[in-house]
Amino acid sequence: MNTLMTLRRGALALALSAVAGLASAATYHIELNTASFVSTYGPTGWIDLQFNPGNSGTPAAAVTLTDFVGFGDAASAQINGAVSGSLASGYTIANTDASGWNDLFHAVSFGGTIGFNVTFSGDADPGQGGKQSTFAVGLMNADADTYLGTTDISGSLVQLNWTASLVANQGSVTAAPLLEAPSIPAVAAPVPEPETWAMMAAGLALLGLVCRRKQVS
Fold first, then answer.
1. Rounded to 5 degrees, what are φ and ψ at 206?
2. pLDDT band at 187, cuts 50/70/90?
3. What residues make up the domain containing 58?
4. Are 71 and 44 spatial neighbours (Cβ–Cβ below 8 Å)?
5. Could you tell me if residue 33 is inside a domain?
6. Is residue 8 part of a domain?
């Protein structure tokens, strides 16, 4: 009996630790549902993606954008600052341009889901000053003169704030939705790393084995 209880507690701890690890994942999935936009704004618009330091002395960092859904013609991309890449290979936006403004402006299609993954990386912050860089996501109409779905002064629907840690590429991320509900449902969720999925599967499998043994006994 004691052995079974130990196994159950160990399996539960394994599963819970895997779930807890999702909160610190460096890759996030951004998803915006624009089904309600077509009737008011038409079938096309723009997405505005920025990654900028909060103030001087913020550690160098970057976001890599991949797995695009709902993006329009690749030739429509307009960039400012430290932005490189393409829809095919993925875009990288660093926070390092001297102007402090790093921006990717791209055509998108309204009426369905607009989505992509964003992965954070960056230098360590030995002093732990808590200085953040902000990845901001906004949508605009076809004329690119009005931000949609939010009343926030920045025009952002979602902001992900990156804070560097003592170890390079292992900072923390906090999400701040700035939506004008209920005009546009949005998701900003951590993407589990492969080893996290494996740990969760192992924990659930062990729990199932323990339960079956208990039923047999």
1. -65, -40
2. low
3. 38-193
4. no
5. no
6. no
